[in-house]
Amino acid sequence: MGPSHAIFWPMIAQALLVFLVYVLMNRRRLAAVRSGQASVKDFVIPTVEPGPSATVARNLINQFELPVLFYVVALSLYVTGGAGVLAVLLSWAFVLSRYLHALVHVTSNKVLLRRNLFLVGMAFCMLLWLLLAIHLTTVP
């Protein structure tokens, strides 16, 4: 498998993070119902949700914000033949930052640390877009 196909592995890892957050949210919501902190009706339109599941629900929303730009740029790099070693390394760095961001968000939820991890991931995503732009200027 060449470097161009290798760009799919960070994308798969990012998708796995989304599924893991879904599982965690389900587990926390079930725990909230079983403990009496919430009822099933509370999740019809979750305006009030227990903190432990609310932070996971918010993190799940985060997984469909910045990562969407990552998926688009990674696929664009692949389609245009720009998914070289640098793109793959930047993609893995982005995904690592997203895992760390999610871990902080659903555990300690230290806002400053979470923000910094978000900014690091955003920088990697921006670099991928810059790499795509540079690549497109060199494609005949």
TrEMBL record:
Q: Does the keyword Mitochondrion apply?
A: no
Q: Where in the cell is it found?
A: Membrane
What's the main place this protein lives? membrane
Pfam families in UniProt: MAPEG
Give coiled-coil spans as residue ranges: none
Q: Tell me which InterPro entries the record gives.
A: MAPEG-like_dom_sf, Membr-assoc_MAPEG
UniProt keyword Membrane, yes or no:
yes
Which GO CC terms are listed, alphabetically? membrane
Q: What is this protein called?
A: MAPEG family protein
Name the residues that span the membrane: 6-25, 68-96, 116-136
In terms of SUPFAM superfamilies, this protein maps to: MAPEG domain-like (SSF161084)
Which UniProt keywords are given for this protein, alphabetically ordered?
Membrane, Transmembrane, Transmembrane helix
